Every structure is written in structure tokens, then in C-alpha cells.
Amino acid sequence: MGPRSFSPPHMDADNLAHGWCTDTALGPFGPDKGGQLVLWDLRVVIRFPPGSTVLFPSALITHSTLSIQEHEERYAIIQYSSGGLFRWYDNGWCSNKHFHANASAEKLREREAACICRWQVNLQKFTHWSDLVQGDWKGMR
Predict the structure, then answer these.
(1) What residues does each domain of the chain span?
(2) Rounded to an integer, what distance in angstroms lies between the CA atom of residue 63 and that of residue 13?
(3) Which secondary-structure segment (H or E) carries 49?
(4) 73 in Cβ contact with 4 (< 8 Å)
(5) Do 12 and 70 meet the contact criterion of CB atoms below 8 Å apart?
(6) d(CA 32, CA 74)
(7) Would you say domain 7-79 falls under CATH 1.20.120?
(8) Which strand (E) or helix (H) includes residue 85?
(9) What domain of life does the native source organism fall in (predicted)?
(10) Rounded distance, CA 49 to CA 59, Å?
(11) For 79, phi and psi rounded to 5 degrees?
(12) How far apart are CA 36 and CA 86, in angstroms?
């Protein structure tokens, strides 16, 4: 939370993979000398001034926040969707361990098939690079 919030390069593996993480920067710091958001896989450094909010899939992209100067303060408010909550729902309101210990062979096959379809369906929620190149950031063409 602060007063000198920053993070080393990481991915948030426990977050919902196709979900969005919200990061809000707060505090008196100079955004040109620190506090930038780095999306390592995309090779992008984003100027991230106080009061800014960014949304990105933190489970899929290696990211970090650069440190600020010694005399400055930076606070962060991070919001995300825990992948475990969605697994709990998909398991019929129980843990993976309990589901696998009690599910019939047929239920296990059904769940495996659902998992295969789920990642394909969720992947379609993201804008495709080819759409961006054409100027279609919504993927509607």
C-alpha cells in the first residue's frame, strides 16, 4: 500500500488468467523519475502518474513498478479477481481436492472438456494483434 510502493518483475499466477487487474497510483511522486509500470513481455514502459489507473491481465503479463525517489511517496491500490473463487464455483462450491476425491469418472471427463473449451472462449475476450494493426481496438471488424 505505501508509502514507497513498488514491485519487482512478476506475474500474478493466482489471479484469474483472463481477468483484469486494476492498479491505481497515488501519492506525491514525480512520474518522470519513477513509479512507471513496466510490462516486460510487451517491452513497454508506461508513465504512471499519481491518480492514474490501468487495467491489464496481471496473471498473463510479467510486470513491475519502478521505485521512486527517496524523498517521495507512492501508494498503490490493487484490485483483482482470484482464480480460486472461479474454480470454487466451477467445482460446485468445493475445492479442487474435494471435487477430484468425490467426482465420478463421468464428472471428471465433463470437467476436463469444460476446461478445454473455457480457455478458448476466454481467449476470444482479448483484442487480437491483427485487429489492433488495422485500427480496430475493439475487435469488431
Answers:
(1) 7-79, 84-133
(2) 12
(3) none
(4) yes
(5) no
(6) 13
(7) no
(8) helix 83-90
(9) Eukaryota
(10) 23
(11) -130, 140
(12) 31
